[in-house]
Amino acid sequence: MLAACPRRSVVSGKCFRWATARRSLFCSSSVWRSPRSIRCPTPRSPTCSITAPRASRASTSRCLRDDASDARRTLRPPLKADMFALKNIENIDLPSKTLCLTYDDGPGAESAEIGRFLKAHGVRATFFVVGKFAVDHPDVLDQLHADGHIIGNHTFEHPDLPYYVSVNGDVRDQIIRTNTVIQKYNEGKPIYFRATYGKWSPEVARELNVDMRSSFRHVGPVYWDVAGIDCHFWKQDKSVEEAAEAYLADIVQKGGGVIVMHDGTADMDTVATKTRTLELTRLLVPKLQAMGYRFVGLDEIDDRQLTSPLSDSFGLRGQNGRFMQASDDGTLHWSGGSVDAPGTRFVMEPKGRGKIALRTVDGRYLRVDPDVDETVRLAAALDVYALFDNIPVNPSQIMLRSHNGNYLAADSAKGGALRANAPFMRLAWRIGYVPTSGGYLKPVSFGQRLSNARRAALFVKSKLLQS
Ligand SMILES: [Zn+2]
């Protein structure tokens, strides 16, 4: 039952992030129940603490739990979304006076202490870690994870990604290497990603999205509302009080949002010794809580921009160039003309030990029972016959081996039905993984564009002054 799920969103009251899926890796319920049945514990009034998203904060008398749109009350249709969005995910829906705390560039010397302090104050933060530091401090990551914080990916060496990809830098490697360190903290969950310096381009997204290893389960890049100005304060030998004041002014002006601080210094070693972000956290968090602000974890936010990638589906292209397509009789054929053809979208669920389950977007699993025949059919049951060994051939192709040891292939080289009929690997079909494109992103206002451009200009100016 949904009510038994330990991971219900504090914002929306429904099973966080998985509300879009009929089946959940966390929840035991096979069908997500409408939040219609979830009563708002607070009366609908102007003082309701759970109010309309920031886009309409002017009228903060609406209670999300009462006034959720119909789209939220029913199963969302699968969305056309990349694993990595083509642009930064910004303008994230948060109720008024709600904050989401994130730390970049660590783990650093103070990270564990920051994590402990936040836990004592009931705050769950996201630490976007740099892989090269993370490999040296698994104990810190263990501690952060044990304290309930989220460990996100912030690349391995902290390069400027749009430039890095333009000079043929291996951006996929930047993500994959960091994941080898942090994936154990994110088993079966989304892996949140933040772009270094917030710099991003569609080219970087496309480069990452072609590779299952660097795209699957990734959500991002997660942008911010309240910029990480702390390190600049430390660099200029300014006090903790001055930094706190600047953060407070920004937060009050914006009324809430995603905050960035830095628990490490990825490319400013001279600043590392001056860092006072622990003290800043100790000063700022209790002050904000006393002012009535509440903190939520990134995985508790019910914003379509963050939740859509997990309901994402992809196409599987066979060696005949056609897409795997579900038929009305429950069999599958290598017949789809494109990834947009009916019945050609699938969702992958990792099941551990190299096994995966594949299902259609309406929740039926691919299953082959060797006692019946070698034909792969769609079934509601997720049993041993619905698990396949996932064997990567190259970044965008896999082979799938069924329970009886046979690989998935087809009736013939020209196509036909999907069958577990290849007893040897050389007869297996190499199956291409084709992510869909588009991504759901809210439109960015002209003012925000201007503010982003200004921030980018300031960054370039500070670098020029440095050199
Ligand atoms: Zn960074």
Automatic annotation (TrEMBL):
Record has Hydrolase as a keyword: yes
Mainly resides where? cytoplasm
Q: Which GO terms describe its molecular function?
A: actin filament binding; hydrolase activity, acting on carbon-nitrogen (but not peptide) bonds; metal ion binding; protein-macromolecule adaptor activity
The answer, when asked if Hydrolase is one of the entry's keywords, is yes
Pfam annotation, one family: Fascin
List the SUPFAM superfamilies. Answer: Actin-crosslinking proteins, Glycoside hydrolase/deacetylase
**InterPro entries named among the record's database cross-references:** Actin-crosslinking, Fascin-like_dom, Glyco_hydro/deAcase_b/a-brl, NODB_dom, Polysacc_deacetylase_ArnD
PROSITE patterns named among the record's database cross-references: NODB (PS51677)
Known Gene3D superfamilies for this protein?
2.80.10.50, Glycoside hydrolase/deacetylase
**Which CDD domains does the UniProt entry name for this protein?**
CE4_NodB_like_6s_7s (cd10917)
**Subcellular compartments:** Cytoplasm
Q: What is this protein called?
A: NodB homology domain-containing protein
| Source organism of this protein record | Variovorax guangxiensis
